[in-house]
Amino acid sequence: MEQNSIFSPEEKDLVVELYGRLMHAAHQAMRAEDTHMVRRYLHRAVTEGNLQRNEFGLHPVVLDLQTAIIVSQEIGLSRAAILAIMLSSVALGRACTREDIERDFGRDVAKILHGLYQIQSLYQRSATIQTENFRSLLVTFAEDIRVILIMIVSRLNVMRQIKDTPNREAQQRVAVEASYLYAPLAHKLGLYKLKSELEDLSLKYLETEAYYHIKEKLNATKAARDSYIKRFVTPLEQKLREAGLKFTLKGRTKSIHSIWQKMKKQKVDVDGVYDLFAIRIILDSAPEKEKMDCWQVFSIVTDMYQSNPKRMRDWLSVPKSNGYESLHITVLAPEQKWVEVQIRTRRMDDVAEHGLAAHWRYKGVKGAQGGIDEWLAGIRSALEAGDDRQIMDAFKMDLVEDEVFVFTPKGDLFKLPMGASVLDFAYAIHTNVGNKCTGAKIGNKNVTIKHKLQSGDQIEILTNVNQTPKRDWLNIVTTGKAKNKIRQSLKEMEAGQVTLAKELLVRKMKNRKIDMEEATLMHTIDKLGYKQVTLFYSDLQDGKITVDHVLETYVAQLKHDKGVGPATAAKSTGDFVMPVEEIKAHKRGADDVVVIDKNLSGIDFQLARCCNPIYGDEVFGFVTSGGGIKIHRTNCPNAADMRERFGYRILQARWAGKGENQYAITLHIIGNDDMGILNNITSIISKEEKIQMRSISIDTSDNLFSGHLTVMLEDTGRLQQLIKKLKGVKGVKSVTRS
């Protein structure tokens, strides 16, 4: 038996405890024979050594039981989902087949388990999904929404378990993935509680100092905050009771991640975040009185306190696409503090806390499933068009939080992401409407296809039969559906152009009695500077390159290939730029790492100017929109934003060989404004081998000087030596790298 399969004594006790908790939580959903059958499968997998710990050393059976408990308690999924989770490690270890599962547990369990197996196998080599595997992830997601729900919980469980891991690199990769993929997914599906925890844990692992700074501030002010909330809610509770309403009133502080985002946006410390906490009023209302009761509470609150109309959100009249319903208002409370008040019923609160799954507990509730089904259909559509990076960009766009609500002339409601254009709306109606769109009428005003929509707009799309999609339309639309449809149309148009241009070229060859040889034609196209054959034919059709010029080049190439003409000039290796897709194959090792060394001249990569990495720095690669790679320091000021917004474009990177190039480094020096201190600093630099000073600038104020010093050096080793020597100069207070 492999060591990986053996339980430690602590794990044995934990498995017994977790199994008991799971059976208690899910006993109503499980059948009598299920528990016996699952234990038989697990026992066989363990004894045969088929189970493997993950790269954090966590046992898969323990993780599965923990995940199943969260799924049962937080989401309330049924028997099929719970059994699929409990058996996922067994399936991954190939201790059973899909036919075995279908025979013993049923087709539904087998279907979910197949999806989990497909995804878990992607995680076997790495703690996170790599770029080239993202399409496979989305394919599985699009097949069954329960797989998405389970994977969100599974990744949250891993995040909970790795707080003390020594494998910091893998921990950070998991946190990055959670912030750009699983937290937005949880939001999309209305799992707000899980979303907040994923975001907070990601912040804890990626921005540790910021996380604990906010946490300590919140702990220090908890008593004062609780006291203020009590003073705010006491008169409000009295008014609500006098109105005959039955309710629960909760005060809560915003999540640490939410506070951090506001701190960055408003450029303030924790104390400067003006809506630090919120009050939630949860009403016990009959289904037919839900909206009426919520609006009554709204009236009572705004009669007592001045509301901020810009901060009012009505998701009661038009729920979010994930089914979220609530009224949000921000009011100016005593002591001139802003307080957010959320008003909803108990059913609405259940949906807000537990997301889409909560709808399955309320018969006859409409609105959420349709929106999610449409979103999943959008994923399936995205898989039919575009490359993997385009798919990821489109998928990320469809996870946006804010929405606008707009109407057709007949009053049909459409929900689109904030920032959507007239062209997005046209494609939301129908692909043909989008392809022929020339603008729109909003009210009595004509607007262009670029016009950004506002909630409440009633839009009449204008079309023209001669209109066709343009490539720059991709920069106008924001929805994944619109981008996918435009790309599909462009591909179809380009295919038609290729056919016409190729027929023209072949006809001209026949007229001039020139032999048509496919290999020679490919050489000709390459010699003319085209990397893509379709682009060559497109330019030929548009007249950007003439048939005569192509035939002259072709004939010369044909003579050369037959040995009767001058050789084609060889291309310089300096002119070659390797596509980013090939970098992985040529310059990435077994651990999927971009290796940076002096032989990288053929790859389209640059050292980022925002952080100026030098040899020896901890670095990562970022795939730019143009397909090249920029190398950033891991502590680059832009790193957190790149990880959060474009985590799928991050590549691991490391230096190879030894530092041989000179890099420009700027140091920020603060010290006493003493006579001769500048001479001492420049003297140290002049005595250092292989270090050159390029510039120095000094400002003085209040008997202190502050200066920026730019030097050229080879690596971080020499940099640290230089900083240490400069700190030793009498009067120097600090030396930091800019």
Characterization of the model:
The protein is an alpha+beta fold and 738 residues long. It is globular and about 95 Å long. Helix 4 (79-92) crosses helix 6 (107-122), helix 6 packs across helix 8 and helix 22 (518-527) crosses helix 24. It is built from 28 helices and 20 strands. The strands form 5 sheets. Strands 1, 2, 3, 4, 5 and 6 form a 6-stranded mixed β-sheet that branches. Strands 12-16-14-15-13 form a 5-stranded mixed β-sheet. It starts with 8 loop residues before the first helix and ends with a strand. The longest helix is centred in the last third of the chain and has 32 residues, at 480-511. The chain is 50% helix and 16% strand. Among the domains are: 3-161, Hypothetical protein af1432, CATH 1.10.3210.10; 369-487, Ubiquitin-like (UB roll) (Roll); 488-569, no CATH class; 575-655, no CATH class; 663-737, ACT domain (Alpha-Beta Plaits, 2-Layer Sandwich), CATH 3.30.70.
